[in-house]
Specification:
It is a single chain. The protein is an alpha+beta fold. It is built from three helices and five strands, in the order E-E-H-E-E-E-H-H. About 35% of the residues lie in helices and about 20% in strands. The strands form two sheets. The chain has a three-stranded mixed β-sheet, covered by helices on one side. A two-stranded antiparallel ribbon has the order 4-5. Helix 1 packs parallel to helix 3. The longest helix has 16 residues. The protein starts with 8 loop residues before the first strand and ends with a helix.
Length: about 110
């Protein structure tokens, strides 16, 4: 199986090193549910491969012509908050789904 690519998560490898590039710089690489699903799927695939370590890196943030290094702001709490309020067209289930899947991912990488 191949790693799962999304526009916000770009998995790659260099020899026995798996690389997960967080590519959501406009939100300071905050994790959304799509990214969490992609990370979980990719890490499951890599667990049964010859990957021996994983590097997680963030895409730099650019504003006003200046580039600033960014790793990850954590979870996309703004989107989760709005979903909990049932605003901005977000599915109210997103709040529960997000935290359940994020904690499962945390457990996997711990």
């Amino acid at each position: 199986m191949q790693p799962v690519f999304t526009t916000h998560l770009l998995p790659s490898r260099a020899s026995n090193l798996g690389i997960l590039q967080l590519n959501n710089p406009s939100s300071l690489n905050a994790l959304n549910l799509e990214m969490i699903h992609a990370m979980t799927s990719t890490l499951k695939i890599w667990q049964s491969s010859d990957i021996r370590a994983t590097l997680v890196e963030g895409t730099p943030y650019e504003k006003n012509g200046k580039t600033k290094p960014v790793f990850c702001a954590g979870g996309d709490v703004k989107k989760v908050y709005l979903a909990g309020l049932n605003k901005a067209g977000e599915d109210p289930k997103l709040t529960a789904d997000f935290f359940r899947e994020e904690y499962k991912l945390n457990h996997m990488i711990a």
